[in-house]
User: What shape does this take?
Amino acid sequence: MDMLKKIEESEEYFGPFYQYVADDEITDIDYSNQMVWLTDRRNRRYLCKECSCSKEFLEQFVKRVSNTVSKPFHKQHPILEAETNTLRITIVHESVSICGCTVSIRKSLPILALTEQDMIEQGYCTKEMLVLLKNCVKTKMNLVFCGEPGVGKTECAKFFSQFISDHERVITIEDNPEWHYGQINPGKDCVELRLNSILDYSQAIKTSLRLNPKWMMLSEIRSSEIVKLLEGFSTGVRGMTTLHTDDVRKLPDRMVNMAGQIRSEGRLENDIYNFIDAAVLIRKKDVLAEDGRHMSMRYIDQICFYTRKEKRNEIHMIVEDGQLLTQSLPDEVLHKMRLCNILQPFEEEKEMLVHMNVKLYEQKQKDTIDMFELCETVSEDQQKEKMKEIMSEIGWKMNQALSDRRTYVGQKSLIGGA
Assistant: This one.
């Protein structure tokens, strides 16, 4: 029975929880100890004093969910899980929960929780980090977003996935709907696969490779499917995924341990350094908001690149403790970016073009002044005409550079305004 067709996001079904289920500003609804705690999109977590949940309603709600998904819920089966396209519901039986029956409703909406402006203004990352990671996507690098549960790994991956080119086919693979790639990126070429008891991660990856993908997006790497993922990356398919770890330097060992005995440890480790280009670690820390509520501040804590050269595996830390350590990137990374016409990894395309043309203008101006000094007979009108020629030439070169990137002067970005 398909639970997606049965769980109704209605007031009749969710009772006192419904107003928070329907509120797009709320991301998590947690019930325990006869209290309801809410988390909003600003990562503020607070006790909802207005929400009262009676014992009678709770028993009805649990029974309703159990019947809807045709799963038992009692002492022998103390965990009940259900989902819709946007909700993940977890209920824990009182026989194993000391504080009584516990309900958690987690929302994953088809919207981007992060914006470029908020990321910079709220301390999620610096502009340099943001531009670097955008350029990594444009360079078609394989990225892993790391962190502990609940830090927003998938939300970060969703944000950066929007910079994939429209014509490149993306295949998402997940057990719970979280990417919402097709809805967030309407008009882009995508196939969204959902795992079940028949289609597991390994089979889904194998199937994806037959669907002409340019990108594979896995919601999370948990086990031996890492071997299939690396095999997919070795064919030239690009991808993003998430992983539980508290340090990007631990990623290779985590992946080796996940693979088990499927492949030799040394060979697998080499593949990781060959085919995983970069990793991003997201952390969160508790801070006190202006209204006195506790909120979790999420931020990019680490960024690193993995390289394998002359039989040496190396990790290059670029960001640590939320601070940019260096703008000096490995030669292998710079080479990949140059192939995609990205010459300044920490600069936006427009900033780079302005920088190029300012230098060109300064050089042309200097050459012209030198010429005027050698020829004192040049009139003021002739000087003005010469400066017009210089500006015209610079404009032509700028348009030529933009044309090579399939953009044009005055074009508005599809993301983030002009």
